[in-house]
Write a structure and sequence with these properties.
Elements: H1 4-14, H2 18-25, H3 29-41, E1 48-52, H4 58-66, E2 71-76, H5 79-87, E3 92-95, E4 108-114, H6 123-133, E5 134-145, H7 151-173, H8 176-188, H9 193-200, E6 205-212, E7 217-223
Length: 225
């Protein structure tokens, strides 16, 4: 599992450059990934949505745009990141640890987490909390990095992940170590069928996976029944 103190401090240090860095490192494709999640949420017409580990609010803002009739709340344990989310137009934010969410049981129609579960100290503990705050029939969507399936594409991706990405991110943020840590977490994070198994072992069912950009990222969806 991950080091929550390191993650919190690292994100606090790069909060004002986080959005730009993400777009540069992904060549803007991360924007399309989040839009796809928002498009998946929109047809369900949720009354309320909780975006956990919202960071600078990228995913929550996309959902807020696509679901104007829904209450969208972004939660995060890093206050400087939430300040960025507020500045960018996210209407509601809550300072909270994903392992101890300050919400009642069966409260939200949809819970999302974009590139955040991987950084949490206890993946199962976080999924249990997500299950708890979701209403019966509620929907969970997780967007996170994964590793491509093909040998050549995986090898090329790992070279970019561990060599090029930290160097470029270091120039932008001055925090190369944070992005070296990113590569390590992606390698250790379950993906594909392993991720589906982890989600289902914490109470969810009807789990589906949707690989993106050749498997560099994946959307996982599941229901609370």
């Amino acid at each position: 599992m991950q080091d929550p103190k390191y993650v919190k401090d690292a994100f606090a240090d790069i909060a004002d450059k986080y959005v730009l860095t993400n777009h540069v490192l992904s060549f803007g494709v991360d924007i399309l990934w989040r839009r796809k999640v928002a498009k998946m949420v929109s047809p369900r017409n949720p009354i309320n949505v909780l975006d956990i580990a919202t960071g600078s609010g990228d995913l929550a803002l996309e959902i807020q745009k696509k679901c104007p009739g829904s209450e969208v709340i972004g939660s995060d344990f890093c206050e400087p990141m939430l300040q960025q989310a507020n500045k960018r137009g996210l209407e509601r934010t809550v300072l909270a640890d994903a392992l101890h969410l300050p919400f009642s049981e069966d409260h939200f129609d949809v819970v999302t987490v974009g590139f955040g579960l991987r950084n949490m100290a206890d993946w199962s503990g976080a999924l249990t909390e997500m299950f708890r705050v979701l209403s019966s029939g509620g929907w969970l969507i997780i967007l996170d990095f994964s590793l491509p399936e093909g040998f050549i594409s995986r090898k090329l991706y790992r070279f970019y992940l561990h060599k090029i990405l930290p160097a470029v991110a270091g120039l932008i943020t001055g925090k190369r170590s944070a992005y070296q840590y990113l590569g390590e977490t992606i390698e250790s994070f379950p993906s594909g069928k392993d991720m589906c198994t982890l989600i289902e072992s914490n109470g969810f069912n009807r789990t589906k996976l949707h690989p993106l950009s050749g498997g560099i990222a994946t959307i996982y969806s599941a229901e609370k029944k």
